[in-house]
Design brief:
Oligomer: single chain
Number of strands: 12
CATH superfamily of the largest domain: Aromatic compound dioxygenase
CATH topology of the largest domain: Protocatechuate 3,4-Dioxygenase, subunit A
Strand content: 25-35%
Largest sheet: 5 strands, mixed
Mean pLDDT: 89
Strand order of the largest sheet: 2-7-3-12-11
Distance between the termini: 90 Å
Number of domains: 2
Number of helices: 6
């Protein structure tokens, strides 16, 4: 059917609008698909379910005869790892200066993070409680995403974590995997360390690796400003790459 000049002009003017809408719709579909597969963030865990509370009761009973390492590594209690109340239980029974975080099946390069916690005079701080947490080998704090979307989400809910208590000489040793760097970021690989000790100011810091390719000159400057600690690889413990840190606390 033959169209008029006016109809042709109308069609010509409408075509870009139709095309634009089609492209917008397509872009929206792509964004929706990306959101569905985007593992950058995951919500924090909800309040413990009845089943998790029953599991927690079992964990409390088991804690009477287990070390902090054994409780964290027990497969029965893996569903509780993201719950802060389970962390408090692990903290309450932390008595050893040696901590093993990952289970045998956890992917990643095994390393040892060792060192000592001292006061400003250099004297060892015995009995300091240290909370350690970090990402998986692929840079994720959760088993569902890289980060937990909530206030202090990664600190409160990280899957790979543990507690230890320094020895009489202030020493500590963490047997774990080398954490991966965050996805979509060039932030250096790091292990979070939070330390509490009587008569000292609580410390929240990071342990970095001198041989990390992400640790640029700019990031080294940033680490220095933030009072983070960087260690080079030293002769290995347990036949694993070992990094030694000397962490200093300030008097309260």
């Amino acid at each position: 059917m033959e169209i008029t000049r006016r109809q042709a002009l109308v069609r010509a003017s409408v075509a870009p609008i139709v095309a634009s809408k089609a492209l917008s719709a397509l872009a929206g579909q792509v964004a929706d698909a990306q959101a569905a597969t985007d593992a950058q963030f995951t919500p924090p865990p909800s309040a413990p379910t009845d089943e998790e509370l029953q599991l927690l009761a079992s964990a409390v009973e088991s804690a009477r005869r287990m070390s902090a390492t054994q409780l964290v590594q027990d497969a029965r209690f893996l569903p509780l790892h993201a719950q802060p109340i389970f962390r408090q239980l692990v903290k309450a029974i932390a008595r050893d200066s040696v901590l093993t975080i990952p289970r045998d099946e956890e992917p990643g390069t095994r390393i040892v993070v060792a060192g000592s916690i001292v006061g400003p005079s250099g004297r060892p701080v015995a009995g300091a409680v240290a909370y350690v947490y970090h990402t998986s080998a692929k840079g994720w704090y959760s088993d569902k995403a890289a980060h937990i979307r909530s206030w202090a989400g990664d600190a409160r809910h990280s899957r790979l974590f543990g507690y230890l208590k320094t020895g009489q000489d202030g020493s500590f040793e963490v047997r774990t995997i080398r954490p991966g760097g965050y996805p979509r970021s060039m932030l250096a690989q790091h292990i979070h360390l939070e330390v509490e000790a009587n008569a000292y100011v609580p410390l929240a810091t990071e342990l970095l690796f001198d041989d990390d390719p992400r640790l640029t000159a700019e990031q080294r400057d940033h680490a220095k400003r933030e009072a983070f600690f960087i260690a080079a690889q030293s002769p290995g413990l347990q036949n694993k790459p070992t990094y030694r840190y000397r962490v200093t606390l300030e008097k309260a």
